[in-house]
Design brief:
The protein has 360 residues and is an alpha/beta fold. The protein is built from 12 helices and 10 strands. The strands form 2 sheets. The chain has an 8-stranded mixed β-sheet with strand order 1-2-6-5-4-3-7-8. A two-stranded antiparallel ribbon has the order 9-10. The longest helix is centred in the first third of the chain and has 26 residues.
Length: 360
């Protein structure tokens, strides 16, 4: 673990994983603007928001009052006038300063939602979370750590606050040569076969296979890698100490021993539908973005309508037909209708790992 990240920064970021949901770009903007330590300070104190409200109301009955020797003017009133002028300057500069601080307040959310952030920040116990992940052989990796995958920085304000990691390998090194293999939970036996075969072939050729440990394609891909003695990373939508789905307890345990289990959520956190969706942004761009990487999606592809390639992925592939066949389906009805032919497809064909498959 790099010494570039100090203890205060690590504690603050660990706490913020309990405060800000994965992919929350408002929280990500706050983190970018204020830094982790200052953001936690603002969330756990009255902060500039209360000061801003006070400024908007104007000075109260005791604001700007003259006290001490400044109030003791001479009989000719010169002292009193001088005190009043000094008070006006002090009050004006105070309000101006307060407005400047209030301008840097935590903006972009309602008072109700901000209250939720504050409540979660007050309840966070980062030292306890760090101890909990250490107890299962894990660690918390922050941006600027040597282990941090630099590809994640391309997500901007949606970048993870940090990553909770289980397993011995160095995450950044593994991310440099990785392929994301993802697909449907309710896949067909053929889909599971293709996922396992593809992942096995990739692993045998030194690729790190990244997936989500879900039922269906994900689980088949992980098993294919483990059977080949290869490297695989499971990205979870829950804490790395939480087994989900429960039916994959043994699989996730094997991945933690042989590979890496990572996630954005602190220990003990459980998955939600939105967390599953946002988990994919970590699987796809961060670990599939190297120049020679391919994101393989084993899902139904409407070839005639075309498939938009994710902007964060250099190459995105799918298996449109039988992966066991050398025949490439035509797109758009063939040359007569402006579609692709087998010899000149619209999608770049990539021979993957010698498993008899083609990615279109």
């Amino acid at each position: 673990m790099s010494a570039a990240v100090g203890e205060a920064e690590r504690l603050a970021r660990a706490a913020l994983t309990r405060v800000i949901e994965p992919g929350d770009e408002v929280g990500g903007r706050w983190l970018r603007e204020f830094g982790a330590v200052e953001l936690m300070r603002r969330l756990t104190s009255d902060g500039p928001e209360a000061m801003g409200r006070a400024v908007d109301r104007g000075p109260g009955p005791t604001d700007g009052r003259v006290v001490g020797h400044a109030a003791a003017g001479g009989a000719d009133g010169t002292g009193s006038g001088r005190a009043e002028r000094e008070t006006e300057r002090e009050t004006g500069s105070g309000i101006e300063g307060a407005r400047a601080v209030a301008g840097a307040a935590l903006t972009g959310v309602s008072e109700h939602r901000l209250g939720g952030f504050r409540a979660r920040a007050a309840a966070a116990e980062p030292a306890r979370d760090l101890a909990a992940v250490a107890a299962v052989g894990g660690r918390f990796v922050c941006p600027d750590d040597q282990e941090w995958p630099r590809q994640l920085d391309d997500l901007g304000d949606a970048r993870p606050i940090g990553l909770w990691v289980r397993g011995r390998p160095q995450l950044r090194i593994w991310a440099l040569r990785s392929v994301a293999v993802v697909g449907a939970r309710a896949c067909t036996p053929y889909g599971a076969h293709m996922a396992a075969s593809l992942a096995t072939g990739l692993a045998e050729r030194g690729w790190v296979v990244v997936s989500g440990a879900a039922f269906g394609v994900d689980g088949a891909a992980h098993r294919g890698v483990l059977a080949a003695g290869g490297a695989t990373v499971a990205v979870l939508a829950c804490g790395v100490d939480v087994v989900y789905p429960r039916g994959h307890a043994e699989l996730i345990g094997r991945i933690a021993e042989q590979g890496l289990v990572i996630g954005e959520l602190p220990p003990g956190s459980h998955p939600t539908p939105s967390r599953f969706i946002l988990r994919n942004r970590v699987i796809e761009p961060s670990l599939g973005v190297p120049a020679d990487a391919v994101l393989v999606k084993l899902t139904l592809v409407q070839l005639n309508a075309g498939v938009e390639e994710p902007s964060h992925c250099n190459r995105c592939g799918a298996i449109p037909g039988s992966g066991d066949s050398d025949v490439v389906p035509e797109r758009g009805g063939g040359p007569a209708e402006g579609g692709a032919t087998e010899s000149e497809p619209d999608w770049r064909l990539v021979s993957v790992a010698g498993v008899g498959s083609r990615l279109a």
